[in-house]
Design a protein that fits this description.
The protein has 68 residues and is mainly α. The protein is built from 2 helices and no strands. Helix content is 79%, strand content 0%.
Length: 68
């Protein structure tokens, strides 16, 4: 597996996490949560995971590219 392949997998995980974030935010909007604080903590963790996946993917995909 190359770094580019691994980077693409991280991007796929990023997309999956973003979809989960959308679903969890919709639950709050619709009032489908019993514990709002726990739901917000879950959303914050998903944001962190998404950010880390995106950063890692960017680094892996651009590892061999030099800035000129």
């Amino acid at each position: 597996m190359s770094l580019e392949d691994l980077g693409r997998e991280y991007l796929e995980q990023y997309k999956i996490i973003k979809e989960k974030l959308f679903i969890e935010r919709e639950k709050i909007k619709k009032g489908e949560v019993s514990n709002l604080m726990m739901q917000r903590q879950k959303i914050n963790l998903l944001y962190i995971m998404a950010r880390d996946c995106k950063r890692t993917a960017d680094k892996l995909l651009n590892y061999y590219k030099r800035e000129e």
